[in-house]
Amino acid sequence: MTEVLRRYGPVLTGIILLAVAVWLLLLVILPQLLMVDFSFRPSLPPSKLGGPEDVYTVKNYATLWTNQIHLAIFLKTIWASSLVTAVTLVVCYPVAFYLAQVAPRRRLPTLMLMLVIPFWINELLRTFAWYIILAFNGPLNALLVALGIFSEPQRLLGGDAGVVIGMVYVYILFMVFPIMNAMESLDRNQIEAARDLGAGWMRIHRRVVIPHAKPGIAVGCIMTFMLAAGSYAVPALLGGPQSRWFTEVIYNWFFEGGNWNQGAAYAFILLILCIGFILLMMRLFRVGLTDIAK
Amino acid sequence: MTAASFRRWATGAYLVVFFGYLFLPLGIMAAATFNSSRFPTVTPWTGFTLGWFSALWADQRMWQALGTSLLVGAGVIAVAVPLGLAAALLLDRLHSRARTFLYAVMVSPLLTPGVIVGISTLVFWRQWFGVTGGLFLTIVAQSSFIAAYAMLLFLARLQRFDQTLEEAALDLGATHGQVFRRITLPYLTPAILSAAFLAFLQSFENYNTTLFVRGLDTTLTVYIASKVRTGLTPAVNALSLILIALTVLGAVTYEILRRREERRRQEPA
C-alpha cells in the first residue's frame, strides 16, 4: 500500500481507491450479497415488508425440489451443459494441438485470424445462423433428405438437440483458445524426446501433452460449462416450450411470475452450480485457482 | 500411403472441416439475405433481391434500438474503461496476498453467468436506491464485468512498463499528477483505445445481462432476438450481414494494429 502511495501520490491514490471501491462494492459484491439475502426472504407486497412475515426462510429453495418440472429442467441443464462441454473439448483438442505445436509458423497468423473473426461475431447472430440451418424447410433438412438419411424433413428446432447443437457452435472458441495457450508453452523437444524413446502418439498425448495442457483444459471446460448453463439466447432462439432451459425458468419468475425472491433463489442455485463445476474441474485436473485466473 | 503422410492428410482434412464448420453457417445466413423468400432460407432459392436492405432501412424500431445500443455502448466505455484502469494501476503496485485476493474478486464477474450479473444488479438497485431497469442499469450491469476485461488489458500492458521512467521523473521533481499525465497515461494510450473498442463490442453484443436490466429500453441485440421469435423476415439477415461485416472489419483492423505493436516491441529500440 505504501508503494502505491509513493508512486501515485495522495490525490491519485485516493481516486484509484475510490474507483476500485465503487466497482467492487457497488457493482460486484453488494449486488451479489443482496441477491442472496433477497432469495431467503418471502415475496411480500410492499405494505408487509419489514412486518412480522418478513423473516428468513428457505421456502424459495424448497420450491425447486417440490416442483418436478423445474427440477427436471435444472437437471437437464446440468447434463446438457456437460454434454456441450465434452463435445467441444473433443472437437477442439486436435485443433488446439495443431495450432500450438504442429502448424508452420508462417501459416499461423492467417489461421489465428480465422479463429478470432468468428469469436468476435455476436453470439446471438451465430445462434441465429443455426436457426436458419435447422429450420423445417432449411438447408440441413434439404441435405439430409437429398442424401436419403431422412425420408422427409424433421423438426430440428424447438427441441433439446437443436439447443445443444447451437451451443456447441456458439461456445466452441472458448474451448480452443485456453487449451491452445496452455499447449504453446510446451517445448517441442519434449514430444520429440518421447517419440525417440519409443512412445506412440496416444502415449505422448496422455503422458506429455495433456498433463502440460491441464490448466488450459480446465479453463476451457469451466468457461464452456458456465456459458452453456447460463445461456439464455441459444435456448430462447433454438429451443421451444418443451426444451426450456433453467435460465428461462429464472426469467419467467422475474418477468411473468412476478416473484423476484423466487427468481433470485433460482439464480443463486445456478451460481452455486457454476462454482461447484469450477471446484470439480480444479479437483479433477489438480490445478489451483492461480492457474485458472491467469 | 505411409503412416506419417496419412496423419498429415487426416490433420489437413480435419482442419478444413473445422473451419468450414465455423464459417459455413455464417455464409448460409448471409446468403439468405439475398433470397426473395419471405422466410429467411436458402432452400428453396426463389430469386435474387436486394429488397431486404431497403426493408431494414425503413424499419423505424431498428433505428431506435441502434440508437439505444450506441448510447449504452458509450456509457459502458465511460464507466468500465476508467474503472478497469484504476484497478490495473492498483494491482500493478501490490505484491502481497491482498493482490491475489483483489485479483480474484475482480475477475469473478467473468466467471459468473451473465443472467446472474443482470439479476443481482436489478435487485440491488431497486432495493437500495429505488432504481428500476432502463438505460442506467444496463450501463451499470454491463460495466460490472466489462471493467474486468479492461483491467486485464491494462494489466498486461503495465507488466511491460519500465517503472524507472516514473522514478526518474519523480526524482527530477515532477509532481505525481505530471508523471501520470506525461508518462503513464501516454504509455497506456494504445491499451485505452483497445479497451474502449472491446468494451463497446462486448456491450453491443450483450444479451443475457441486458435482458434483465433493460426495463422498457431495447438494444439492437435484444431487438434482433425479438424479431427472430416474432416477425422474422430476411431483413434480420440483412442487419446480421451488416453487423458481421463491421465486426470482421473491426477484428482485422484490431489484429493488424496489435501485430504491428508487437513487432515494434520485439525490435530493439
TrEMBL record, chain A:
Signal peptide: none annotated. SUPFAM superfamilies: MetI-like. The chain crosses the membrane at residues 12-34, 78-99, 156-180, 216-238, 263-285. It is a multi-pass membrane protein. CDD domains: TM_PBP2. It is found in: Cell membrane. Keywords: Cell membrane, Membrane, Transmembrane, Transmembrane helix, Transport. Residues 74-281 form the ABC transmembrane type-1 domain. The keyword Cell division does not apply. It comes from the Bacteria. Belongs to the binding-protein-dependent transport system permease family. CysTW subfamily. This is Spermidine/putrescine transport system permease protein. It comes from Azospirillum rugosum.
Automatic annotation (TrEMBL), chain B:
Keywords: Cell membrane, Membrane, Transmembrane, Transmembrane helix, Transport. The keyword Transmembrane applies. It is found in: Cell membrane. Residues 66-254 form the ABC transmembrane type-1 domain. The chain crosses the membrane at residues 12-32, 70-91, 103-125, 131-155, 185-204, 235-257. It is a multi-pass membrane protein. Gene3D superfamilies: MetI-like. Coiled coil: none annotated. InterPro entries: Bact_Polyamine_Transport, MetI-like, MetI-like_sf. Belongs to the binding-protein-dependent transport system permease family. CysTW subfamily. This is Spermidine/putrescine transport system permease protein.
